[in-house]
Write a structure and sequence with these properties.
By secondary structure, the protein is an all-alpha fold. Among the domains are: about 45 residues; about 35 residues. It is about 70% helix and about 0% strand. It contains four helices and no strands. The longest helix is centred in the N-terminal third of the chain and has 42 residues. The termini are far apart.
């Protein structure tokens, strides 16, 4: 069996004290901080008062619970009547016509403004004055 001499033992102790121990302490502190963060996160998530059966349990139970037929939710998926579709199309057409009218008005104003600026003098060509 090999026995280290006192110089090698002193060197190994110094290495352990000033090189290895600080690294181990840093890793230990990091792991403790991560563990504390996980614990705090779990505690915060556990403290949230999330409803177990949706927002309003009595309404959920009155509808028969999840996965059961509900008149209100079924009405969202039923096709509209022809009268409702005609009203909706008329409103959409009116919005489209108003938008096109605004576009044409603004576009004509912009063209006339640009024409007057270029040919009246604000942006006149310096090579061809007046």
């Amino acid at each position: 069996m090999y026995v280290k001499d006192p110089e090698m033992l002193a060197r190994d102790r110094l290495l352990g004290t000033y090189t290895v121990r600080p690294i181990v302490e840093r890793v230990r502190k990091t792991l403790l901080a991560c563990g504390a963060g996980v614990f705090v996160s779990l505690a915060a998530l556990n403290s949230i008062d999330a409803p177990q059966y949706g927002v309003d349990r009595p309404a959920w139970e009155s509808n028969g619970g999840a996965g059961f037929f509900s008149e209100r939710s079924a009405s969202y998926y039923e096709p509209q009547s022809e009268e409702d579709e005609a009203e909706e199309e008329a409103a959409e057409q009116a919005r489209y016509e108003a938008a096109m009218e605004r576009y044409q008005r603004d576009n004509s104003e912009a063209k006339s403004a640009k024409f007057s600026e270029v040919f009246v003098g604000k942006y006149a060509d310096p090579k061809h004055p007046g």
